[in-house]
Amino acid sequence: MKNYLNIQQHALSGYFERVALESQFYATHISLLMALFYYSDSDTPEKSFQVSRPKLMRFSRIKSVATYHKNIKDLVDYGYIEYNPSWHPQRGTQIRLIIKPAGNP
Asked: What is the pTM of this model?
């Protein structure tokens, strides 16, 4: 028997519902958030993690570096992530998903 993740009961369900209601987000914003979630520690998604831009672009199917940076900026501006860039080729960028408790806008 397969064990499936019930997203409605998952701790991040409120986060994804908030994303879905964001009228200024495009599919690229949502796919980038999914890539960030994929590369985060799924047991503690609010913990900082490091990941490279090429990995995020490949996973989210974003082809343009300009689109990637615009989407990252939007996610920071709207309070979905903290972003600390690293220009070191092996280290990767440090990102933290900002998970607000249920009931907080």
From this structure: 0.79
Digit-by-digit pLDDT tens for the chain (105 residues) are: 455 555 555 566 777 778 888 888 999 999 999 999 889 876 777 789 999 999 999 999 999 999 999 999 999 999 999 999 987 777 889 999 987 755 555
Distance CA 50, CA 56 (A): 11
